[in-house]
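Final report, Chapter 2: Outcomes

The project's central promise was a pipeline that accepts a single protein chain and returns its three-dimensional structure in a standardized token representation, suitable for archiving and comparison. That pipeline is now operational. To close this chapter, we reproduce one record exactly as it appears in the project archive, with the input sequence first and the structure output second.
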Amino acid sequence: MVKTFAKGRLHWTLPQLSTPEQCQRWSDLLPLMTWQLWLAHAIVHDNPLPWQKKKSKLSPGRVAQAMAAVFAAIGTPSCPPKPRGKSPGWPAGKARLRRIRFPTVKKSTKKPKKEQPQSA
């Protein structure tokens, strides 16, 4: 259950990352997110959606669903957002580099080649 939860609910396979290092960092964050949900299990209250029944024992998905109240209570250390305006756009004369594409790794079984008869 934990593996399915980690892949589905925490969006392990969602991000389209470019490099193996980025994928490794994302995979390293997943156990931390799961640990935070486990620690928050005792302080959150069930906040079911209208079609869900109330539960006394919360699943990790229900804990994640109720985390908004925890975040609202503890606040954030970040600054408030700056007012929006028209963005300056891409600087003139600066070259745009395309994203690095890596070849797709295909894991398929190869059929053995038929041996050619040796001519005399």
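Archive annotation: The two ends are 63 Å apart (CA to CA).
This record, like all others produced under the grant, will remain available to the consortium after the project formally closes.
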